[in-house]
Design brief:
The protein is mostly helical. It contains 9 helices and no strands. The radius of gyration is 19 Å and the shape is elongated. Residues 62-166 form the Phosphatidic acid phosphatase type 2/haloperoxidase domain. InterPro entries: PAP2/HPO, PAP2/HPO_sf, UPP_Pase.
């Protein structure tokens, strides 16, 4: 069995669960299509705690995502495939999606970039972030819009970019300077009583 057949067989296994366990479909539809809005809300909450560590974490996650997206676009030029519902018959397609190159999965890139960064920075509940990214990746297969290889490669790219970003962000003084300038401006608009965090 070659890699393509393994990819299709694993897709069929996961996607067919949606036909057998229909009561789980709404959960996976939410995770595949709407969890991105929850992630954005979580990132905003971390940012507006006004804690330096949380803001450095969000900056690191954003840089990780940008790096991963760039690497993902390069990977997409080396290999391409359309969504499974466009290439295979009898796919359990649960959400609407335009037909284009689905390799690698942008959703997976986004969630692993942020969730892996949260894993690195957060000491409590850190494994929940990894579980969240994994479930979102699986959900994209469950609803029929990505192959397992799309998700796996997206995850690998983001994990790699996350370690690069977390290494860079913690060592670049210019990032802290830019954050300090931002916080000075923010203080003028949304003043706080405690100014002890200003550099």
């Amino acid at each position: 069995m070659d890699l393509f057949e393994m990819n299709v067989d694993l897709f069929r296994t996961i996607n067919d669960f949606g036909k057998e366990y229909t009561y789980l479909n709404n959960f996976f539809i939410f995770m595949a299509e709407y969890m991105v809005f929850v992630l954005a809300f979580i990132a905003l909450i971390f940012w507006f705690t006004r804690r330096e560590e949380n803001r450095m974490m969000i900056i690191s996650a954003t840089i990780s995502f940008i790096l991963a997206e760039m690497m993902g676009k390069i990977a997409g030029t080396l290999h391409s495939n359309n969504q499974p519902f466009a290439e295979l018959s009898n796919v359990n397609k649960l959400i609407e999606k335009a037909v284009d190159n689905s390799f690698p999965s942008d959703h997976t890139i986004l969630f692993f970039a942020f969730c892996m960064t949260f894993f690195i920075y957060q000491k409590r509940w850190r494994y929940i972030w990894i579980m969240l990214a994994l479930v979102v990746g699986i959900s994209r297969i469950w609803v029929g819009v990505h192959y397992p290889a799309d998700v796996i490669v997206g995850a690998i790219i983001s994990i790699f970019s996350t370690f690069i970003a977390s290494f860079i962000v913690s060592r670049l003084n210019i990032i802290r300077k830019l954050l300090w300038l931002y916080e000075k401006g923010e203080q003028q608009i949304l003043p706080t009583r405690d100014k002890s965090r200003e550099l």
